[in-house]
């Protein structure tokens, strides 16, 4: 695990950049919006709730991230106003909603499907936001830019809010799945994630955490990790954990632990299989993840 220091000079290059983000009306998203504006960037913010601030380089688009058409409009607004998107930050989130050991029954006594709100907002909508972001980054001229995903420190721990933890592990999984694809695309596209520890926001009230004997950090701390992931063009597939004002890059250490046991891993085999299948052509048989 590598401890990081984020200096002002590491994030200055965001001046003049255009960032689309979700969940910008509160907490980490709002702190990030303020930092980006201070750095001279333009922000197009999509949230289900109104923005509490105004700025001439800030556009608000009312967006429910669960609605695909809302997300499409959010990115279209950014493209129409600025002509280009440099970074997309998929951040909107909710706390856990499901209790998988609770029996919720319908009128006839049959078990009801669990509440999937946390999976829908924290995972499905994050994938949709990233997918739309990549679409715009790929098709602009010149192509390029980055995606930043809000995972959580719960993406690499046992954490008892199981639906939330499932979604956040899924966010990390999406990033891990996309890195080889982006590297193989030959385009200057990057994807990175943040893993905040307990941070004082609308979701995590300071008093509740402090009553349990743990200090929270300010969302301003997390905002700087978002800015670094956007600004540093050497970052690809990184995961920045922040807690109580300090930063660590986690992903390299976690992947090294796995590689020490597995070697190059299954993706190197999948790469060879896919190359062989491409040489054989469409009749070459189906692969996991292919639509054949
Ligand atoms: N606060 C923490 O300790 C902590 C730790 C790790 C990760 N996170 C993650 O940080 C992200 C931001 O959360 P936060 O802590 O700043 O909480 P927050 O409640 O202050 O902010 C969440 C924002 O998301 C918006 N949002 C929720 N559902 C939405 C929807 N359907 N469509 C559009 N916008 C929606 C809310 O209106 C709000 O502005 C989340 O993904 C959360 O899981 C938070």
What are the main properties of this structure?
292 residues; alpha/beta; Rossmann fold; 9-stranded mixed sheet; 8 helices; 41% helix; globular; binds nicotinamide-adenine-dinucleotide
Write the layout of secondary structure elements.
Blueprint: E1 2-4, E2 18-22, H1 27-38, E3 42-47, E4 58-62, H2 68-82, E5 87-90, H3 117-139, E6 145-150, H4 162-185, E7 189-196, H5 206-211, H6 219-231, E8 239-243, E9 246-249, H7 251-262, H8 266-280
Parallel strand pairs: 2-3, 2-5, 3-4, 5-6, 6-7, 7-8
Antiparallel strand pairs: 1-9, 8-9
Helix pairs in contact: 1-6, 2-3, 3-4
The protein binds nicotinamide-adenine-dinucleotide.
Keywords: Oxidoreductase
GO molecular function, one term: oxidoreductase activity
InterPro entries: NAD(P)-bd_dom_sf, SDR_fam
Bound molecules: nicotinamide-adenine-dinucleotide
Major sheet summary line: 9 strands, mixed
| CATH architecture designation | 3-Layer(aba) Sandwich
The overall pLDDT, averaged over residues, is 95
Helix content: 40-55%
GO molecular function, one term: oxidoreductase activity
Family: Belongs to the short-chain dehydrogenases/reductases (SDR) family.
Keywords: Oxidoreductase
InterPro entries: NAD(P)-bd_dom_sf (IPR036291), SDR_fam (IPR002347)
Structure write-up:
Keywords: Oxidoreductase. Belongs to the short-chain dehydrogenases/reductases (SDR) family. GO terms for molecular function: oxidoreductase activity. It holds the Pfam family adh_short. The chain is of the alpha/beta class. It has one domain (2-249): Rossmann fold (3-Layer(aba) Sandwich), CATH 3.40.50. The protein is 41% helix and 16% strand. It is built from eight helices and nine strands. It has a nine-stranded mixed β-sheet with strand order 1-9-8-7-6-5-2-3-4, with helices on both faces. The longest helix has 24 residues, at 162-185. The protein is globular, with a radius of gyration of 20 Å. It starts with a strand and ends in a 12-residue tail after the last helix. The site of nicotinamide-adenine-dinucleotide has 29 residues, from helix 1 and helix 3.
